[in-house]
Amino acid sequence: MKKHILLLAFAGCTFALSAQISVGLSGGANYTSWKWEVDNLPTGAFDQPAFGWRAALLAEIPLNKQLKLRTELGTQVYANGEKKSFIFPDDFLNGDFDGSQYHYRENYQFWEFSVLAEVLPFRKMSWFYVVAGATGGRLTKGWPSFKALEPDKEQLSGTPIDVKNDNWHHNSLAADLGLGGNIPLSKSIKLKLESRFLYFFNELDDLDNVHSRISPVMLNLACVYTL
Description:
This protein is mainly beta. It has one domain: Porin.
């Protein structure tokens, strides 16, 4: 029995050493579309899409010449926004009853873990790949921001959004699909440029009469080192 265990351990170590495990850092931006719907209202409420950011650690291991398994651990901020008018005392004194224009933005931060398969569909295009898998996340933080659209107006800061109460879905699960390309810099270092789309299976809120869903598109650039 001990011989079998030692044999399996040796085989596992041999595979890990010969598999050319790669590790790296990934960063990029996302563009997120939002949809908010409230029951018993004739139309849904749609927030303006906005840009967010993402940063992650990654590790990948080749299973064969055309298939790699990748895991990622990182954080991502999804955002929305809209233009709003705020009326301040100075506006009343100046006879401006339309108020001051501000760009209102909400930011939601998730910690995420992804398991992805990276497939090379064309042997003659070894640099091109398709990536597919799943991403699970945990909502940990939310905050608003205000950007003045008039040069003489001050910036405003909002109070944090309480995302820890029961009105929010704290855990998320999404299908993760995309296309990418490898850019070799040396025998052991390469860049990975890819575009990915996340389809969330759950809503952002946990209210019965409110339905919110996000649809992010990501553009990522990673630097990967083969051990």
